[in-house]
Amino acid sequence: MFDDYVSAVRSAVAYGLAGPEDAMEMACAAAETAGASVQALSGQWSLYTPQDAARVASALLVQLRSNAYALTELADAVGRIVKRGEAELPAAAGPGQSANLNDALTTLRTLADTVHGLVDRHASTTVLALHAAPSTTALPEDVHETLVAVAALLAEQHDQAVTLTQRHPDDAYEDDGESSGCGCDITIAADGEEYALSYGDSEWTLCRESDGQKLPDGSIVFSDHETLSTTLETAHPQHLVDDILSIITADRG
Questions:
Q1: pLDDT tens per residue, range 122-149
Q2: Digit-coded pLDDT (tens) for 99-123
Q3: What is the DSSP string of the chain?
Q4: Residue 68: CA atoms inside 13 Å, Cβ hemisphere, count?
Q5: Listing from the earlier edge strand, what are the strands of the sheet with 162-165?
Q6: Of 93, 108, 169, 227, whose CB neighbour count within 10 A is largest?
Q7: What are phi and psi of 132, to 5 degrees?
Q8: Start-to-end Cα distance in the chain
Q9: Rounded to an integer, what distance in angstroms lies between the CA atom of residue 239 and that of residue 164?
Q10: 64-68, 69-73, 103-107, 176-180: lowest mean pLDDT where?
């Protein structure tokens, strides 16, 4: 999904950005992206390690620098309108007067210079400090390790039976790169209901036994399922456990 967002922007740039509509659309898209970044970072599990924070900080600081360049270009674009004789540039407003076009352009350039100065002074040291920060997080290396770790945490934190069904030895799984999972799953008992956690089709799913229908060949299809909040095969195990227990708690009412 991330690649889709980036590709859409790159395609627009490659196609050509020339007129007012393009400028306004790109600025609005940037505003939406900035707002989405705030939302993405606000979650309990938005980052797993300080190194994750370093990568995000690097991107946000590049964005901040680009925004400063955009403010300068915005002021220059208005200057070109004035140069064409299609707008008048008055003297700066005096005390007690409302800000005018001259004041607006001065403010845009001042903001740009201020942001450039802050980024130039602090960006590299901030990113390097985040990247170098020690972390005790031990993340799984593949989807099977994730399932094993989740099962262990559930056994500690859930008050009923938790069963990991392994369909291969721990050291026999090889990631095929297709995000199809390893074939193992976890069964969680909860007040007469059973939940099954598995990974496939690039998502973590939690199915309720009561939503399953057994077919003549012995297989089971589910009419409904819960999709957990992350699609990472190597998600932080506690992230998945929190999602699972939240769903079970909600079902209990």
A1: 999 999 999 999 999 999 999 999 999 9
A2: 999 999 999 999 999 999 999 999 9
A3: -HHHHHHHHHHHHHH---SHHHHHHHHHHHHHHHHHHHHHHTSTTS-SSHHHHHHHHHHHHHHHHHHHHHHHHHHHHHHHHHHTTSS--PPPP-TTSPP-HHHHHHHHHHHHHHHHHHHHHHHHHHHHHHHHS-------SSHHHHHHHHHHHHHHH-SS-EEEE-SS-GGG----SSS---S-EEEEEETTEEEEEEEETTEEEEEEGGGEEE-TTS-EEES--EEPS---TT--HHHHHHHHHHHHHHHH-
A4: 16
A5: 162-165, 185-190, 193-200, 203-208, 226-227
A6: 108
A7: -85, -10
A8: 34
A9: 18
A10: 176-180
Read off the amino acid at residue 201.
D
Burial 70-95 (b: 16+ CB within 10 A, else e): bbbebbeebeeeeeeeeeeeeeeeee
- For residue 208 the two structure tokens come to 């309720």
Whole-number pLDDT of residue 240: 98
Which residues, at least 6 apart from 78, have a Cβ–Cβ distance to it below 8 Å?
A: 87, 101, 104, 105
Backbone phi, psi, residue 49, to 5°: -140, 160
- For residue 189, the cross-strand partners are 194
The total of other beta-carbon atoms located within 10 Å of residue 160's CB is: 13
Among residues 66, 53, 63, 67, which one has the least CA distance to residue 126? 53
Q: With a cut of 90, say whether residue 73 has pLDDT above it.
A: yes
